[in-house]
Structures are given as C-alpha cells and as structure tokens.
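Hi D.,

Good news: the full-assembly prediction came through. Inputs first.
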Amino acid sequence: MDNGACSYRRFLDGDESAFDEIMDEYFRGLVFFIDRYVHNVHASEDIAIDVFSDLIVHKKRYNFKVSLKTYLYMLGRSRALDHLKHNKIIDFVGLDQASSLADEENILEDTVLRNERKKAVNAALSKLPEDMRLVIHLVYFEDMTYDDAARVLKKSRKQVDNLLYRAKRRLYIILGEDGECVL
Amino acid sequence: MRELNEIKAEILLRSEKRIKQRNKTRRMIISFCVPLCLIVFIGSAVLVPALHKDSKNINDEGIKGVVDDGADGIVNSGPIYRPDVEPVSPKSTVSVIKCTDGEEKTVCVFMDPLEAKEINETLSALLYSNNSHTTTDDFVGNAKSISHYLIVYTDECGEVTVYKLEENILFDTNGKSVMLGEEEEKKLYSSFGIG
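Then the structure:
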C-alpha cells in the first residue's frame, strides 16, 4: 500500500478524481488527528483544509520519499502547532456552543472510529499525556509504522518505542482487566 | 461537520486564492528587483568612471594649490608637483628621488608631459655634449657619495630612463657621465626645487 502517493502522482499528471480519492481517504482522519492538538473541531477542519490546499498550491514540495499520509500528518502537526502558537489567548466559549462542539467531536469520532474497541481506547486516551496520546493515535488509529509516527512527531524511533510502551502500560491500568484484550 | 463536497470546494477556493497571491508576490518581486538591478548596473557603469574622473580632477587641483601656495618650501616657476601624487595616466613624467644611505625619498614629480620631455631632453643634451665622457663607474653608486638624486623619466609608452645626479656629476645607464659647470648645476638643482 502506497498510502496515497500513487493517487497524488495521478493528480499531478492531471487526474482530478485522484484528489477526491485522497480527500476521501485522509481528510477526516487528519481532522481527527489535528483535533488532538487544538481541541476544536472547526479549527481542526480549517487547518486540514489549509493542509490540503498546500498539496495543490505547492505541488513540487512533496518528494515521494515518505508516504503521502505521513506527509499530510507532518504538515497537519506543524500547522496545528502554529495555530496554537498564534492563538494563545484563551478563547471563552459559551455553554451552548461548547456542547455543540462536543457533539461535533462525537460525530467526528463516530465517522473516523467505526470500531468499538478503538472507541474505548479513544475514551481512555484523554487521561494520558499529550505525547503518549499522539503516538497511540498514529500507531493505533492510523496504522502508521513506528518510523512514520516518529517522522510526524519529529522524534526518534526509539523515543516513539518508549512512549508507546509507557502509554500502553498506562492504558492497561486505565482500561482495567479488559485493557489487554483491547490493545 | 461539513460535507466533503463542501470542503473540497473550500480547498479549491483557498488554493486558487493562494496561487493568485503567490503569483502577485512573484510579480511584485520581479517588478522591484529587475529595475533595481538595472539601476545598480547602470549606476556602477556610469558612476565608477565619473568618480575616477573626479578623483583625477581633485588631484590636479591639489597639485595646483601646492604650486600656488608654494607649500612645503617648493617655490618654483614651473609646475612642481607634490611627491605623493602618483601619475594616473600613461603620460610622460619625471620623478626626482633622493637617495641617502640606501633610503629613497621622492622629492618631486613632474606630471606635465611637455615639461617632462623638456627635462629629459636637457639631461640627455648635457650628457651627450662635448664635455661628457664614458665612465666605467657603477651607475648605482660610488662608495664615497653619501647622497645623490635619481631622475626617472617615463615616456608615453612606459619606457623608463634613469639619470643619476651626484653632486655636480650627471650619469646615465649607458655609462655616460658629464661634469656640470657651476651654472648648469645650479640651474638643474633649482629646476628640481632642490637647490
């Protein structure tokens, strides 16, 4: 599986439908991943749109050395961090708006995670530190290899390995006896 | 959450906007950089020779000032130039260098080609007059003399002729020498401003 590189090559060759394929394949997942950073579905969607428009504007930037999915997630991460940096002022959201955001997040979760096991893990993830949460997300939800996850998070493979090990141990504790079956 | 079609439309719209913005920025850079480069190029092509010309004029004025003021104790009727002024074009010049105990010091430089030529003609006329004789002395120096003058004539082609004036004897590089009469000696020294 080339994780989108082939579709992108087709898109570069002028096949417009290839871009739709990439969108269908990766857009929701990317929004879900960005939401782990920004905790706002609308902002995540906005950032993901920017990431995809990057693919169209800077066609030569992607060098096919990593999978397109990894590249998109790398862009998503850096854009999400930029967003956080530029929006440090705490944004007070009204209660009704907050509940609608939570609903939207649930819808997004339902769209991306169709598997009950994954939903259980996702619920437990909120109790983990951010870096553990992200590494579990990439490896467990996005089925990325350790190397790809390391590329996205700008960490070494060893660091990713250690983080995953510690995250899994914590998740076992959080999920209780069922934890071993889930992970 | 918006529909994927809606999002696709948004992506295309933003991409189009960004591409337009990028092209606009590129055009702006080109429209600024190309004239700037042209200005720098033309400026350097026009200004540098003009500056050279100006510095030459300043040199000439400086020389004139020295002559008018009679500064540095050099008071002469002819255009005797400051020693530190180097010739800027390949014209005939005469430099008078004082050599004392192996140390050389330029006393004066004649920049006027006509005058330089005239000096050269006078010196060669003296050397090739009836009083002259061929000497075997080393041109560079006679052990007894402590100080002497070297008169260096450079013609338009850059060819150099060197004369040596040691007290009242004038030498050239061909081994010719002439003992100058009292009047000739006085005239020569005063024309160089070293009398």
